[in-house]
Amino acid sequence: MATVGTDTVALSAQQQLVRESIRDICSEFDDEYWREKDRANEYPTEFVTKLGEHGWLGVLIPEEYGGAGMGTAEVVVMMEELAASGGGFAAAQAIHGGIYNSVPIVRYGSEELKERLLPGVADGDVAIQSLGLTEPNAGSDSTSIETFAEKDGEEYVINGQKIWISRVDASDYLLLVARTTPKSSVDKRTKGISMFLVDVQEALDDGTLTMNAIPKSASNAVHAYELWFDDLCVPADSLVGERGNGFYQLLDGLNEERLVIAAECLGLGELAIQKGVDYANERTVFDRPIGKNQAIQHPLAKAYAEVQAAKQLTYNAANVVDEETGTAVGAQANMAKYLAAEAAFAAADAAVQTHGGFGVAREYDVERYFREARLTRLVPITQELALNYVGENVLGLPRSY
Ligand SMILES: Cc1cc2nc3c(=O)[nH]c(=O)nc-3n(C[C@H](O)[C@H](O)[C@H](O)COP(=O)(O)OP(=O)(O)OC[C@H]3O[C@@H](n4cnc5c(N)ncnc54)[C@H](O)[C@@H]3O)c2cc1C
User: Fold this and answer.
1) Alpha carbon distance 149, 216 (integer Å)
2) What is the pLDDT of residues 50-69, one digit of tens each?
3) Which residues line ligand 1 (CB under 6 A)?
4) Residue 386 and residue 259 share a domain
């Protein structure tokens, strides 16, 4: 658990409670647990089950559907703490989708769908851990997706391909983003996109969904897949929200989610700094602790300052996000994600350097934080695309796409 320095952000009583409860749960999962999950490429089922038992998977679900009815201000604390506890980015990512994929259902789903699914999600019994958006031919240009859902009587028939889709192995349902009108036939490229809920096991069983895990080097406890849909049929009422408006409905709420990603980066950065500081104090070379050397001290201190700066921005925005909307929050969310990922990377790099040769030894964990910190600069949005938002929407620079 990260305890470096004095916390520079004042927490509300509710946020304080969230922090204590999450710390308490996380204390049951030590460094060895996370090291082993990463080494074995194993999803942290016990950890996720424990969070579900305590109701944390329903943190954003309204109380009337059995959830905790909390908001962004609480979730940033929760996810920062999960990452800082020792699990790093992987711990937060293990449940990130499980929390956020039900948001479109809460906001745009039919009453029947909400009553059928949300109480189970809140209890941890129903997992909607996967969001299928990215495609090989579209990448960051999400409106160029080609996966198509064709209406056929009381069903939609889905064909196409997705890539990098996380946690399909831990999901009962996949929230799938597909075109229902080709890009060439809409007046605005953001139109003609819809969201569907796909029963993963059913689709795998009848062979209309096939999936391959993508071998990767970071966040190994959380798996990502390439997916192929071959005449996958889903009932018409699997449509979430309004047909053709799925892109807008998916994006609505994205700023809040981006702040939470920033918080996950902050937790990882705090964890790395704590590990670096502990080692700098205990390792003696030339008859003195290596922490006495400014070459060791300064990168850690600089990373700490950067994490704290990003934290101010993240928490300030998270505390007002429910009242404000539009470009102001979008700018803060994108800047927070950008700064927090850079700070996490600097922190993990400093922690590795502080450890000398042991910086790459698995048993000291910092190499794992470093791999994860590198990943935070790529997902769920690349640093470049986050900066594009600021350049275009805040500074009034021309669009690059
Ligand atoms: C581990 C992992 C888990 C993931 N999980 C999911 C998931 O669950 N669901 C899902 O839908 N997706 C998921 N993704 C996909 C992820 O969101 C994308 O990888 C990411 O958005 C970048 O897209 P891309 O990889 O296609 O890069 P590309 O779009 O091909 O970009 C390549 C490079 O070009 C840069 N670039 C492109 N266009 C511009 C521009 N206009 N200006 C400046 N730079 C530009 C990018 O910043 C990047 O550096 C995951 C990815 C990873 C690695």
Assistant:
1) 30
2) 999 999 999 999 999 999 99
3) 131-134, 139-140, 164-166, 216, 219, 224, 378-382, 384-385, 388, 400-401
4) yes
